[in-house]
Design goal:
Helices cover 6% and strands 73% of the residues.
Length: 220
């Protein structure tokens, strides 16, 4: 969050006094972002016993994203629905599984979805907004499976898509006609599970995904 505040302060300083168009119309945006995934894991054993690992494990990755939105302006207040795609690419290895001494992994691959920005044009060049959206996130889990004696049987891998919600804040400033730069932070929760096929127990992952973005947008 400190990094985001620093970036937004810098953008505010860069905002000049020349008159550009208000936030309205079509925008295509590309972004460079750092994704940080924080994962908490527990195992639900057959019969209802829960083995809870209270440690939070983290992984991070730097990658790219792209989005399109159309902004409607109502006297400096704007609404901008749009679509987006983001490469996440984080992989987290959690602590040892009590059954076999190996650490299950949780990988978040990418996400896409729809979002809505609600913002305000503080000047002709500088705007701030809050955002919310519905995401479809692809993921993969991996862990060794074992029988009741702790003998490893195979490496189980599960892939899937999970629907979720994101929310965040952002800032933009015009640097040339029809070109703006900005910064954004957004976050979402992602809960998934995989299965010990031999023992029948569930491994459940609770993930928080934070994205810190620098954006470049073209207005047309």
């Amino acid at each position: 969050m400190k990094k985001l505040i620093l970036i937004s302060s810098t953008l505010a300083v860069l905002a000049g006094s020349s008159a550009f168009a208000k936030t309205e119309g079509n925008y295509v945006t590309v972004d460079l972002h750092k994704a940080i995934s924080e994962t908490h894991r527990n195992t639900l054993i057959v019969g209802g016993t829960t083995q809870d690992d209270i440690t939070k494990y983290t992984g991070q990755n730097t990658s790219l994203g792209a989005s399109y939105k159309y902004a409607f302006n109502f006297d400096k207040i704007f609404l901008a629905p749009g679509i987006f795609y983001e490469r996440i690419g984080t992989k987290v290895t959690t602590g040892p599984d009590d059954a076999n001494g190996s650490g299950p992994t949780m990988s978040v691959n990418n996400r896409r979805g729809v979002r809505l920005d609600l913002g305000y044009d503080f000047t002709n060049d500088f705007a701030a907004y809050v955002t919310t959206g519905i995401t479809s996130t692809t993921y993969r889990t991996s862990h060794p499976d074992a029988d009741a004696l702790g003998t490893a049987q195979s490496n189980q891998k599960f892939r899937g898509n999970k629907t979720g919600y994101l929310y965040g804040i952002g800032f933009t400033t015009n640097v040339a006609k029809d070109v703006s730069i900005g910064a954004e932070y957004n976050t979402q929760m992602l809960k998934v599970k995989s299965l010990h096929v031999v023992s029948g127990s569930d491994i459940r992952f609770k993930n928080r995904i934070d994205l810190y973005k620098v954006t470049l947008a073209y207005h047309f």
